[in-house]
Amino acid sequence: MEETPGIPETYTAQMGSQHVTLPVIPVSDDLSIALMMVIDQPVSVIETAGRELAAHFAGVAPDIVVAPATLGIPVAIEVTRALGRDDYVILQKTRKVHLGDALEAPVHAITSTASASLLLDRARLDDIRGRRVLFVDDVISTGSSSGAALALLEQAGADIVGVGALLAEGDGWPDALASYADRLFALGRIPLFPR
Description:
Blueprint lengths: L9 E6 L2 E11 L2 E4 L8 H15 L6 E5 L4 H10 L5 E4 L11 E5 L8 E5 L4 H4 L3 E9 L3 H12 L3 E11 L3 H4 L7 E3 L2 E2 L1 E3 L1
Parallel strand pairs: 4-5, 4-8, 8-9, 9-10, 9-11
Antiparallel strand pairs: 1-2, 2-3, 3-12, 6-7
Helix pairs in contact: 1-2
């Protein structure tokens, strides 16, 4: 990868009690990001991060953890495990055969080149409706993906008691998630790198 003057090749972020070194990659002609891919991190790193997120939210006593596919899945598993729960719900991004009548919310993420939707399987509605839900993800950037997920969960009747992420990126997400500001927590922050 060719280095852009003034933009580092990597960025080391504090994520709770841990440090993670992330590659800095361009996402457009004028912007680069520190790319957090949970699937590229050691299992022990995500386990520790999940335990630390769970500890932060333990006081609000979530009934169930919800995360978006795909990179939110390892986070959901580790947070669920650390909370002593045995079930979590994943909001899908690909319409599979059993999701024909799913609840749906359009979404666009900074790391995606195409628009997509988040899908909630109607078979999981009773696991969400009226329950204390902790929403978790790997990175919150613009807040648009998380905002769409939270709107979908509210449509399903969830009582959202927390919104957690391993990392928060840039400065746009607080405005997008302002109505959840009292329930929002990230283990660390990463900057955006304008080119």
